Amino acid sequence: NLFIFVLSLLVALFLAGTPTPSYGLILLFFILTLAFGVLIAIPIGGADMPVIISLFNALTGIAVAFEGIALDNGGLIIAGTVVGAAGTLLTQLMAKAMNRPLRNVLFSNFGDSNEEASEIEGSITESDATNAAMTMGFADRVIVVPGYGLAAAQAQHKVAELTKILEQRGVDVRFAIHPVAGRMPGHMNVLLAESGIPYDLIFDLEEINPEFKATDAVLVIGANDVVNPVARTDENSPIYGMPILNADEAKQVFVIKRGQGAGFSGVENHLFYHENTDMVYGDAQKVLNDMIAALKTL
């Protein structure tokens, strides 16, 4: 990364001081920087992507600041410095949330493991939207864990409608947000705010984790790595040590998912094989719509 910064600065200074800059040199610089960006991103494991996205945002700001120095433009320097500082702080917070130093994220190939993963015990059990809705409708407390599947299906408004119906039935509904859920830091918070879900129903990992043991039902919508219990138990797993939401400690877990694929990290989720977990396969928006219809019949 330092090499890229130095190269960018030198080339920018050279081009700024050249009356008629060489377009061939500009094209070569563009190709080199593109190649470096790809080479930096390729080794990064899937579960570390939110951290790397934050880092890339910070590097973008620093690059703009360097351009401002080269062009003697105060506006670019100030804007780039602000973006770079904010991105750097966010990167540090994301790395802390993953319980990993940034150097480990960048250089340890987090998504790969040279050791064998632990054997999966149990089998996957399927359920349907109606059964899940009935269970939540007669529960005292429900925790919703949103993930990227919620964003992909654009189902945030259906979640808000489901929440309202459950609250009308006297169910205590809460939302558990993992710091790196989704594809960008704060992704889930933005979606839930957009759908009008009250902020006092949204809890971060440290606040909500002790509540799972006293929860009747957990609804996981498109989340995977952030609820994978092997992060606590399997030292050979590439996500070992990553803080997770303790959804597996609830009495019943329903997971809405399109299929049986692994998460962003490529690690199989052992939660899906637990006795207290039922899979509800399908598009999140359609499944939630079916749940809402079932609840309205109660």
Attribute tags:
6-stranded parallel sheet, 6 strands, 48% helix, alpha/beta, 298 residues, 12 helices
Q: Your description of this structure?
A:
This protein has 298 residues and is an alpha/beta fold. It is 48% helix and 10% strand. The longest helix is centred in the N-terminal third of the chain and has 24 residues, at 74-97. The chain starts with a helix and ends with a helix.
- Total strand count, please? 6
Q: Summarize the helix and strand pattern as letters.
A: HHHHHHEHHEHEHEHEEH
Counting DSSP H or I runs of 4 or more residues, the number of helices is: 12
Which segments are poorly predicted (pLDDT under 50) over 5 or more consecutive residues?
Answer: 110-116
* Percentage of residues in DSSP E strands: 5-15%
Q: Rg from C-alpha positions?
A: 23 Å
- Which sequence of strands runs across the widest sheet? 3-2-1-4-5-6
The largest pleated sheet is described as: 6 strands, parallel
Rounded mean pLDDT score: 81
Quick one: overall form? elongated
Helix content: 40-55%
**Which structural class matches the secondary elements?**
alpha/beta
What gap, in angstroms, lies between the N and C termini? 58 Å
Short account of what is shown:
With 298 residues, the chain is of the alpha/beta class. The protein has helices spanning 2-16, 23-41, 49-71, 74-97, 102-107, 129-137, 148-152, 156-168, 187-194, 205-208, 230-233, 284-296; strands spanning 141-146, 172-177, 202-204, 217-221, 253-257, 277-281.
